[in-house]
């Protein structure tokens, strides 16, 4: 996909990237210091290119815009490759864990759509998965659920990858 250019408010050129970003949560957090309470913001951001890559990041700053920018930079450092099938689903069932959150995912038939909730849905959509069944188990914390989803997606492998790792042909994997 070619990068498109557009003019920003000052008349300069700004490149439009292929990455989409979505803010999952913005929280106002306080730190108690000697002089009182210091306010800052925490932003949970998910980025993806809808072609099999997604990342989850967290940013903290004194203002919301700064927190989101830091979150995007952190998400780019934690990208996950997702092997997609022809039906835009995952190759096999998978589950991921992050702290107290567990996420279970199963491939779905074409036309099913993304059946998931909260941060899990956001990560799957930005990764480019179109047909999937997912369930959050345990914690409802959006950050832990997003990280558990990224963990589950990073553990996915295609038949070709498994055959290559074992040093056999794909046909041999089917025969017993």
TrEMBL record:
Q: Which UniProt keywords apply?
A: Ribonucleoprotein, Ribosomal protein, RNA-binding, rRNA-binding
Pfam families attached to this UniProt entry: Ribosomal_S5 (PF00333), Ribosomal_S5_C (PF03719)
Domain S5 DRBM, which positions? Answer: 19-82
On whether DNA damage is a keyword of this UniProt record, the answer is no
GO terms for MF: rRNA binding; structural constituent of ribosome
* Residue ranges with Basic residues bias: 1-10
Any single GO BP term: translation
What NCBIfam families does UniProt report for this protein, alphabetically?
rpsE_bact
HAMAP family, alphabetically? Answer: Ribosomal_uS5_B
Q: What is the annotated quaternary arrangement, including any partners?
A: Part of the 30S ribosomal subunit. Contacts proteins S4 and S8.
Q: What is known of its domains?
A: The N-terminal domain interacts with the head of the 30S subunit; the C-terminal domain interacts with the body and contacts protein S4. The interaction surface between S4 and S5 is involved in control of translational fidelity.
Function recorded in the entry = With S4 and S12 plays an important role in translational accuracy. Located at the back of the 30S subunit body where it stabilizes the conformation of the head with respect to the body.
Protein name according to UniProt: Small ribosomal subunit protein uS5
Organism whose genome encodes this protein: Romeriopsis navalis LEGE 11480
Gene name as annotated: rpsE
